[in-house]
Specification:
67% helix; transmembrane; 2 domains; Nematode_rcpt-like_serp_H; transmembrane helix; membrane; mainly alpha; three-stranded antiparallel beta sheet; Rhopdopsin 7-helix transmembrane proteins
Length: 368
């Protein structure tokens, strides 16, 4: 009897020991798993890395951007000459995408990103960072696709009307625009539960950056890189390949192609100048996209944390809209002449004096 009681007592003690050991293991795991968060220290204070600097900068940008964008719309709609009439709708389409991207990033959204975590705050007038993240990356894809369509139109109009491309072009263009809202849809369908995701995101940081002071909630787009990485590769790669292909085709045919039949030499010359202007406009715009987007990929992949660099990336995307509009105005001569016309009032033109000599068959013009 006492032997059985002793055995039961030993079993109970052993069970208690196993339970305590398991409980301690769980608590130790949770402690060390969150040790990075528990011991996290604030990052170095820097006004240029703060959310206040980002908001102030974007409000200043808005003061300059709105009239510049409005002037761009006026130039495209009212100052496009007849030889550019076939490209007006494509310039307007591209300008609309650029303005929409500007409004999402610089006015409504104002993303305060905290890479290398795929997370951030929305500092704009509407606090919906998840929605504006999706709209931002979608409008980037839409702007890139509009550049492809612009290049494709110039290639087809001048060089490709007799090629096999004429049978496929409409389907390719329509499919390209259909894919624009789909590139980054998968990550939106698998947004993690935010309470746990915030812990994981903060644990991935080496220090805590300065956070917004108005109690805004951190939004975590993803805790795993695979799905969002695939979406970025496809969403960036497809428009880049499309733009690159027709950029090369336009450059090649500009240099080596013969004059298209049925077009006068003057018409061909004007179309060539238009293509060159579009190449300048779109090339600079593409660079302003590729550098910030690939910087984000670099920061996340190599776990680089610098809040000033994060703010600078968002700033670069924000000024893309202004830069694109200014480049469009300066690259195309009709818009450039109209924009610079007020300055001509302050520039004295050389006087022209006609001298009529006694011999009627001679006439000379002297400029002073």
């Amino acid at each position: 009897m006492s032997h059985n009681q002793g055995s039961e007592s030993n079993v109970s003690l052993y069970s208690l020991y196993i339970s305590l050991k398991f409980t301690c293991s769980v608590y130790c795991f949770l402690f060390f798993h969150n040790l990075n968060t528990i011991l996290m220290i604030p990052c170095e204070n820097n006004y240029y890395a703060s959310p206040e600097f980002l908001k102030f900068t974007f409000h200043v940008i808005t003061c300059f951007a709105l009239p510049i964008h409005a002037f761009g719309f006026y130039c495209v709609l009212c100052k496009t000459p007849s030889h550019m009439s076939s490209v007006r709708i494509y310039l307007l389409n591209l300008h609309c995408w650029c303005v929409a991207l500007y409004l999402v990033i610089s006015f409504f959204g104002i993303p305060y990103l905290i890479y290398p975590a795929i997370a951030g705050y929305g500092l704009g007038f509407i606090e919906s960072p998840g929605l504006f993240f999706y709209l931002g990356v979608t409008f980037i894809a839409g702007t890139s696709t509009s550049m492809f369509v612009l290049f494709e139109n110039r290639y087809f109009t001048i060089f490709g009307q007799t090629s096999y491309w004429k049978y496929f072009r409409k389907y390719i263009v329509v499919a390209s625009y259909i894919f624009v809202p789909l590139y980054f849809l998968p990550p939106q369908l698998f947004i993690p539960e935010q309470t746990k995701a915030r812990e994981v995101a903060l644990a991935s940081l080496s220090c805590v950056p300065e956070l917004p002071s108005d109690n805004r909630q951190l939004f975590v787009q993803a805790t795993e890189l695979t799905l969002i990485a695939v979406s970025i590769v496809i969403g960036e790669g497809v428009p880049t390949i499309q733009c690159g292909t027709f950029f090369i085709l336009n450059c090649f045919y500009l240099v080596f192609a013969k004059k298209p039949s049925g077009l006068s030499k003057k018409t061909v010359h004007m179309q060539h100048k238009l293509v060159i202007a579009l190449i300048i406009q779109s090339s600079i715009t593409i660079v302003l996209f590729l550098v910030p987007v690939n910087s984000v990929i670099f920061f996340v992949f190599f776990h680089h944390q610098n809040q000033f660099h994060n703010n600078f990336i968002v700033f670069a995307l924000a000024i893309h809209g202004i830069s694109s509009t200014i480049i469009m105005i300066l690259a195309h001569k009709p818009y450039r002449d109209f924009a610079l016309h007020p300055l001509s009032c302050f520039i004295k033109k050389p006087k022209t004096v006609s001298v009529m000599p006694s011999v009627p068959s001679f006439r000379s013009t002297l400029e002073f």
